[in-house]
Specification:
By secondary structure, this protein is α/β, with parallel strands linked by helices. It has 2 domains: about 80 residues, Methionine synthase domain (Methyltransferase, Methionine Synthase (B12-binding Domains), Chain A, domain 1, Orthogonal Bundle); about 120 residues, 3-Layer(aba) Sandwich (Rossmann fold). It has a 5-stranded parallel β-sheet with strand order 2-1-3-4-5, sandwiched between helices. Helix 7 links the parallel strand 3 and strand 4. The longest helix is centred in the first third of the chain and has 21 residues. It is globular. The protein binds CO-5-methoxybenzimidazolylcobamide. CO-5-methoxybenzimidazolylcobamide (B1M) binds next to helix 3, helix 4, helix 5, strand 3 and strand 4.
Length: about 210
């Protein structure tokens, strides 16, 4: 089957919140030897982008969005073991989480999958993470990288709070900080003293590699 058709079906299943269909098309993608990461980004994440539009237009409400997120997760679990990526040469620990007050974790979970698949050791603190927890995790796991995600303009300042706490706790020069999430940008990253900004999950892997090579 044509890969574009599979991507379209995966996206449709996410939009429709159709778990069974998402499972079926994820399995079809594997059978057809389609790159698993492409299936996630061009199929599932594309569907989630459409869901975002519908939510913003007021055509979808929270229950529909949650059904879409479940359909996406079911398919991601099937595709995840098949992601092909070069493994990191040395084990690098990344502390990752969604900042305080923010429960949007779909994008962060994609970033985690990509970093995991690239061979990084990811300490996933989850969502709505109190700022101090990032610093405690950096110390506990001697992390080299901190990854912060935020999806709301109201929670973005939580990223600066984490960076300020890293400075206060004498940890800032021990770690590189990468931020991401729809409302963030390179300019915002620079303005709060982060080392980098990632547009999407695959870019996050490249950036982490580049940061630790420095
Ligand atoms: Co809500 N939500 N939501 N939401 N939600 C947004 C973010 C919003 C923009 C919608 C809108 O109103 N236009 C808006 C925020 C407005 C603002 O900025 N202030 C909003 C709001 C207001 C809210 C609530 C307050 C609604 C309410 O209750 N009244 C509430 C918030 C609760 C809270 O957090 N305290 C809420 C709740 C929810 C749901 C629970 C229904 C659900 C979240 C489910 C979940 O995550 N488990 C949800 C969803 C799904 C969305 C939208 C529709 C989609 C977000 C998403 O998953 N996108 C969103 C609309 C939008 O974003 N335009 C919206 C798909 C995902 C793959 O993309 O997360 O951007 P994204 O991740 C990308 C990149 O950004 C990047 O890589 C990812 C993939 O490649 N990336 C990184 C992300 N993190 C990165 C980190 C990196 C690098 C790259 O390095 C570390």
């Amino acid at each position: 089957m044509e890969k574009e058709e599979i991507f379209k079906n995966l996206a449709k299943c996410v939009v429709d919140g159709d778990e069974e269909g998402a499972k079926k098309w994820a399995e079809e993608a594997i059978k057809s030897n389609i790159d698993a990461y492409e299936a996630i980004m061009n199929g599932l994440a594309e569907g989630m982008r459409k869901v975002s539009e519908l939510y913003e237009k007021g055509e979808y409400y929270v229950p529909e969005v949650l059904l879409s997120a479940s359909a996406m997760n079911v398919a991601v679990e099937i595709l995840r073991p098949h992601i092909k990526i070069d493994k990191a040469t040395k084990p690098i620990t990344v502390v990752l989480g969604v900042v305080e007050g923010d429960i949007h974790d779909i994008g962060k979970n994609l970033v985690k999958i990509m970093l995991d698949s690239a061979g990084f050791k990811v300490i996933d603190l989850g969502k709505d993470v109190p700022s101090m927890k990032f610093i405690e995790a950096v110390k506990e796991y001697s992390a080299e990288v901190v990854g912060l995600s935020a999806l709301m303009t109201t929670t973005m300042p939580g990223m600066k709070k984490v960076i300020d706490l890293l400075i206060k706790e004498g940890q800032r020069d021990k770690v590189k900080v990468i931020i991401g999430g729809a409302p963030t940008s390179w300019d915002y990253a620079k303005s709060i003293g982060a080392d980098a900004w990632g547009k999407d999950a695959s870019e996050a892997v490249e950036i982490v590699r580049r940061l630790i090579a420095k």
